[in-house]
Amino acid sequence: MQRRPTITAIALLIAAVPLAGCRTTAELLYDRRVEATHTLDQLYGRYGGSPLAGAVTSGIDAAASLTHEEPNGFLSSLGNAAREADRAAFEGSCSQLGRGERPLLLTDKARTFFEQSSTRDDCHRYVRLRAEIRRMEAELASTGRR
Predict the structure, then answer these.
(1) DSSP letters along 20-85, please?
(2) Cβ neighbour number for residue 51 with a 10 Å cutoff
(3) Boundaries of every domain in the chain
(4) What is the pTM of this model?
(5) I need a surface site. Which of 7, 30, 40, 117 has the fewest CB within 10 A?
């Protein structure tokens, strides 16, 4: 008599193991978005930003300190906009490279960085993640789930 409940409990545990690993499309989508963002963050961190954006933001930061502007003032916002524009341009170049296209590279620093095989591999990985994200978003949209 004692064996039957033990066998039943073991069978239920075995049956539950595959279900514990099941994740919804929304959960997987979140994971892919985090992975894509992390991949681009790592790439941009290695790149270090463009020399032009660095010069612009340095000048803006210097002007902000001379005028004793508040941290969230107009000049600070301009500096943030310059950094975001630089990152957006970097993302565009990485996406082009990852798709096998030739990105427009305006500086020697960018040319050298994007010629590295590790950069090409990481950009290709980023593009694959973004494609997977678009596919998952379309799947969720077609089923009406979010």
Answers:
(1) HT---HHHHHHHHHHHHHHHHHHHHHHHT--HHHHHHHHHHHHHHHHTT--TTSHHHHHHHHHHHH
(2) 14
(3) 25-143
(4) 0.73
(5) 117
